[in-house]
Amino acid sequence: MTEPTTPAAAPESPAAPESPAAPESPAAPESSTPSGSPRASDSPPSEGPVADGATRPAARAPGYPRQWEADVVASDGGILHLRPIDPSDADALRAFHGRLSERTRYLRYFGPYPRIPDRDLERFTTLDHRRRVAFVCVLGDEIVAVGRYEGLGPTPEDGGSAEVAFVVRDDHQGRGIGSILLEHLAAAARENGLRRFEAEVLVENHAMVRVFRDAGYQVSRAYDGGVLHLEFDIDPTERSLAVRDAREQAAEARSVHNLLHPRSVAVIGASTDPSKIGHAVLLNLLRGNFTGPVYPVNPDARSVRGVRAYASVTEIPDDVDLAVVAVPAAGIDEVMDSCLAKGVKALIVVSSGFADAGSHGLVAERRMVEAARAHGMRVVGPNALGVANTAAGVRLNATLAPALPGAGRVGFFSQSGALGIALLQAATERGLGLSTFVSAGNRADVSGNDLLQYWQSDPDTDVVLLYLETFGNPRKFGRLARRLARTTPVVAVKSGRRVPLPARSSRAVPIDDSSVQALFEQSGVIRVATVAQLFDTALLLALQPLPSGPRVAVVGNSTALGVLVADGLLDEELELVGDPVDVGAAASPATFAAAVREAVAADDVDALVAVFVPPVATHGAPYARALREAVAGSGKPVVTTFLAAEGVPAELAEPRADGRGPGPGSVPSYPSPERAVAALSRVVRYARWRATPLGEFIVPEGTRTDEARDLVARLFAEPAPDDPAPRTLVLDDDQTTAVLGCYGIEVAPFRLVGSAEEAVAAAAELGYPVALKATAPRWRHRSDLVGVRLDLTGADAVAAGYAALAAETGGDEVYVQVMAPRGMSCVLEIVDDPSFGSLLSFGLSGLATELLGDRAFRVLPVSTTDAAALIRAPRAAPLLAGYRGDPPAKLGALEDLVLRLGTLAEQLPEVRSVVLDPVVASPDGAVVTGARMVLGPPPTRDDGGGPRRLS
Question: N or C, which end of the chain has less CB nearby within 10 Å?
Answer without folding.
Answer: N
